[in-house]
Each structure stands twice: as C-alpha cells, then as structure tokens.
Amino acid sequence: MIFWEYLWNTSHPPALVEKALDLTLSNLGLEYLDLYLVHWPFAFKEGDALFPMEDGRIAFSDDDYVDTWKAMEKLLLTGKVRSIGISNFNKQQIERVLANSLVVPAINQIECHPFLNQNKLIKLCESKGIKITAYSPLGSPDRPFANPDDPVLLEQPVVVGIAKKHGKTPGQVLIRYQIDRGIIVIPKSVNQERIKSNFDVFNFKLTKEDMDALQGLERGNKAGRYVPFSATAEHKHYPFNDEY
Questions:
Q1: Which of 193, 190, 187, 148 lies closest to 171, judged by CA?
Q2: What SS3 state is found at 127?
Q3: 26-79 tens-digit pLDDT
Q4: From its phi and psi, is residue 33 left (phi > 0), alpha (psi between -120 and 50) or beta?
Q5: For residue 149, which phi and psi values (nearest 5 degrees)?
C-alpha cells in the first residue's frame, strides 16, 4: 500500500512545512509517507482554517512556491517522506521550480480527462522526468459546484459508444484511457461497487481509433476544466490562466 498526502495552502511558509508533515503523520499513525505533494502553487494566510476568510474572500499569502519546494526537499533528509511532488502546477511554474531546486518533483498531479487531455503539459513533464497523476478522470460528476448545463463526460456519445463496444462502463473506458497513455490515474468513489468496477480495467485495451476519438473531445484549458478553483483566480500564482 502506498501512502501519500498533500501539503495544504496554509502551510507554505518554509518554517511550517515540516510541522504540517508531522501533524499529518500523527493523524494517520504513520512514521513516513511514500509521497508528499504541494497541493497548489498558491498560498493562503497561515492559520488553523483550511480556507481563511477576510471580507468574504479567501485570504491569500505571498509565500513563494519555490521557497516551499526547497523546504520540501529538506524533508527527504529526515526519512519522513520517500518522495515529493507537486499538484496543479503549470508549465511556467514547473520550469521555475526546476531552475531553482535540487530535486525534480516525482509527480505532478493534475486534472486530466478527454475534455482536458493535457497533452502539452504531459509532454513537458515527461521530458523533465516528472510522472503525471490524473485526478478527476471521470469528470468529477459528483462535484457540489457543478452547473446544470455543464456537459457530463460519462454521458458523451463517444464515451458511451466505446464502452458498449468493449462491454465496459463509460467510467472504465475513461480510466483505461489514462492507463493506455501511461498516466497514473486516481478515480474517486465512496461506493463499494463502483470502486470494484474501477479496478476492472486490466482485461481490455483501447484501440488507436478509440484513443483518437477520446482525444478529439478536448475542449481546452478553460472550457474543458471541471475544477478551476475560481475563488483563487486573483492569486498571483493561480496556475490556470496560462495555456498549460
């Protein structure tokens, strides 16, 4: 079993990074994590609240993610983490981390699915030795902030048609899509039957025609993103304003 967790946005100051890890280890009853990720490149005002508020808005901090990453690197010397990574970092942010650090992130965890295939970001990361983990691979159908007119990825005719062809569910097709691209995929479910179904993806393979059809669903960085975290869009380190 692999244990991984995130460094949250309120613990970006370098002096807080190891303290946040120690609290996580204590809460989980573990001596170390296999992987520890900087959850977002932007920081919130430090404190106990996950979403510190001021005047009805999230209170931001100017902490630099490069300084946070340098503190993450030091964790490797403690034995409390086996590897470190990033999440939701864009091209410019990745290149800036690499230019100012000693350790290449093991992982960049990003939203990734056929509406947002992330081809350019994946290619960049692979060229730097950074593995990709895809979150929201099913299009986050249960997200509480969904709009009624948002397109449902699981119901797209292309996805449904490929699923019928292989005798699989649309969800299994979307998971297999990532596997066939060489991407680590982390579908989320609290339903026992769906969890079992999500694992039943190793007895079929998508054809080139299937993959091309799924790639053709791409909608771009803005229209294709289900998890834009819009409440943070004014932060100077917000990652989704760039092309990728």
A1: 187
A2: helix
A3: 999 999 999 999 999 999 999 999 999 999 999 999 999 999 999 999 999 999
A4: beta
A5: -95, 5
How far apart are alpha carbons 133 and 121 in whole angstroms? 12
Residue with tokens 């760039």: 242
Give the torsion through C-alpha atoms of 108, 110, 114, 119, to 10 deg.
-40
Give yes or no for a contact between 25 and 80, defined as CB atoms under 8 angstroms apart: yes
Return the biggest CA–CA distance within the chain: 54
Name 41's Cβ contacts closer than 8 Å, sequence gap at least 6.
65, 86, 88, 89, 90, 93, 237, 239
The predicted model scores a pTM of 0.94
Neighbours of 129 (CB within 10 A): 10
DSSP structural state of residue 40: -
Q: How many residues does the chain have?
A: 244
